[in-house]
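Sample 3 of the quickstart, ligand LLP:
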Amino acid sequence: MVKEIRNGILFFDGCDTTALAAQYGTPLYIFSETEIVSRFSELRSCFLEKYYNTRVAYACKAFCTPAMLRLVMREGMCIDVVSGGELYTALRAGFPPERIEFNGNNKLPSELELAVDAGIGRIIIDGLQELPLLESICRKKGVRMNVLYRITPGVKASTHDYIVTGKKDSKFGIPLEDTVIYPAVEAAIRSEFVNFLGFHYHVGSQLFDNTPYLQALEVALGLVRETRKRFGFSVRELNIGGGYGIRYTGEERRPYSYFLDPVMTRLNQFCADEGIERPAVVIEPGRSIVGEAGITLYTVGSIKEIPGVRKYISVDGGMTDNIRPALYQAVYKGMLAGRADEPATEQVTVCGKCCESGDLLMRDVMLPPARSGDIFAVFSTGAYGYSMASNYNHNPIPAVILVKEGRPELIVRRQTYDDLLTCAVIPDSLK
Ligand code: LLP
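Result:
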């Protein structure tokens, strides 16, 4: 385990977290390289090495910095990007373009141009207008791009409504009505400017049940069969998205094999029955790679007791570094990092410093009696914490460090107040 308690102090991947807080300041995002690498190792043994013609494209929206992308690259994985900014970050980090796949429901012409110029591996087309747009760019540049169609499989996964993506009423994907999908498939197969490979879907995020994956697969298999029947075209690739759930509080993370084995078994059986070669299978895990690998450290500041109501413990960050409690009512676990063996005798609510009543990180949790200056650690913040951070109230975005077996390294420096102003301009009229 990368998390351990030594002499009442929380250690993370071999580092004393209170010492890290003193050295780098707080709030501070800390990522364990050991934990990230162990996820990739698990995927290697239970998926990449077990089933031929498979790929893992880390969904870098979960946590995207040049150092993280170098780590993904070193581990031999692909990435899924969803914006020109993520793509640019990957290219600047030296990520091999052919290992980049580009998702997104409204890719801008400028983003597609960047992708075509870089020669990335796949573009996942997400709507009917995107094919002609991409074709016009490819025509201009004299290149042919590999594409998949993102479909909306119409399955309902059980998770927070904001992170369900595969149901029919969704801004993502191409609807599966015959009159919509098959003309689109035909156009892509016949196109001179794209190389049509197959289908993509993503059922949702933070899932613990493999049923929606299997239901979505059935939908995709129907398409594979029909595409062959109508156009004599064998689908060469299926991208089944990400969404594997992690542990925030009690629930155990399911091993990847729980999700992947039934899918691969069903797919292999389908291909044998149909007498076709199995398409390549790509997965796009994000949260499950980095979620539990990240923690956030804060310093306790003001403490307020409202007699008979509640005790508020304020920390020096909040919804600006972790929007998830406010946005999805996400629940986290935390502890006083320097007083880990003291009994938790007080019920408190841990709140952030933003001017927003909803800026609560944890409601009604039990802690040892906290004092100003204590270091407070929140667990499993690695996914969609830093990547959704904002400068609300002009709070600077915290630093990020990567730790491995007792060795910390800075990977994103803390923003300064001047960083907050780098893009701001005072026009002559106001000078
Ligand atoms: N592939 C596609 C096409 C996606 O839309 C997503 C997530 C993923 C892969 C990765 O899913 P993961 O393995 O990370 O669950 N901000 C939200 C999560 C939004 C996820 C959106 N799409 C949160 O903090 O819970």
